[in-house]
């Protein structure tokens, strides 16, 4: 993750796959408050420590919390992984102040990797990665799987769209790799043809 002063005017796109929910949310919240614009993709792949059954029971207890006389007044229980992550970040920001509201407006969250983010460079946050932060052998579950269990209906759709995106990305990568090989081959042929002339131009760094 870039520092707040490094790329303040640009968007930072974070691939949330296998990042710990709370750790990622706290880092994102801090960056938002410092003025950074952040886009988080693949929210359905965010990890939570603890098994799926435990997390489901916790979420079902949360679903029972409501206003008796008028439940629509809140709390609002989101089912989509992106909205669950958004709500987690909101809890770490003073969102009822102007500064907090402006910070939260700089955050965008998505399931999968929708255009145009599929063509842009995505980053990871090492301080929040599951492989570095979760103890070996510790149980965990993915946010998308939990969301499906508590009422999110688009798990299979997102999975299908992601498979299509990966296939398309693989074809594009192979094409770029082939072009790079051809370019390297062409450069080698030119160097062989112009060997003596390149030696003359080398001192002036042409």
List the defining traits of the structure above:
single chain, mainly alpha, three-stranded parallel β-sheet, 8 helices, elongated
Explained architecture:
- With 206 residues, this protein is mainly alpha-helical.
- 49% of the residues lie in helices and 9% in strands.
- The strands form two sheets. A three-stranded parallel sheet has the order 1-2-4.
- The chain is elongated and about 85 Å long.
Offer a quick outline of the entry:
With 206 residues, the protein is mainly alpha-helical. It has helices at 21-33, 52-63, 81-90, 98-105, 130-133, 143-149, 155-193, 195-201; strands at residues 11-15, 37-41, 47-49, 107-109, 140-142.
Sheet/helix structural class: mainly alpha
Helix-strand pattern: EHEEHHHEHEHHH
Rg estimate, integer Å? 23 Å
**Number of strand elements:** 5
Query: What shape does the CA trace take?
Result: elongated
Low-confidence stretches: 1-7
Provide the spatial order of strands within the biggest beta sheet: 1-2-4
- Report the major sheet: 3 strands, parallel
* Helix residue percentage: 40-55%
> β content, as a range?
5-15%
SSE blueprint and pairings:
Layout: E1 11-15, H1 21-33, E2 37-41, E3 47-49, H2 52-63, H3 81-90, H4 98-105, E4 107-109, H5 130-133, E5 140-142, H6 143-149, H7 155-193, H8 195-201
Parallel strand pairs: 1-2, 2-4
Antiparallel strand pairs: 3-5
Helix pairs in contact: 1-3
């Amino acid at each position: 993750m870039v520092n707040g002063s490094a790329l303040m005017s640009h968007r930072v796109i974070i691939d949330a796959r296998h990042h710990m929910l709370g750790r990622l949310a706290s880092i994102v919240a801090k960056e938002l408050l410092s003025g950074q614009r952040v886009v988080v993709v693949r929210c359905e792949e965010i990890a939570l420590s603890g098994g799926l059954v435990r997390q489901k029971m916790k979420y079902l207890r949360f679903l029972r919390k409501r206003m008796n006389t008028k439940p629509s007044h809140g709390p609002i229980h989101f089912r989509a992984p992106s909205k669950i992550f958004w709500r987690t970040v909101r809890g770490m920001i003073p969102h009822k102040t102007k500064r907090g509201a402006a910070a939260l407006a700089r955050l965008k969250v998505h399931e999968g990797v929708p255009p145009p983010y599929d063509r842009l460079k995505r980053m990871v946050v090492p301080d929040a990665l599951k492989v570095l932060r979760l103890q070996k052998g510790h149980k965990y579950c993915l946010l998308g799987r939990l969301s499906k269990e508590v009422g999110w209906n688009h798990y299979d759709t997102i999975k299908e769209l992601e498979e299509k995106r990966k296939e398309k990305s693989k074809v594009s990568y192979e094409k770029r790799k082939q072009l790079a090989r051809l370019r390297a081959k062409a450069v080698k042929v030119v160097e062989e043809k112009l060997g003596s002339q390149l030696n003359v131009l080398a001192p002036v760094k042409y």
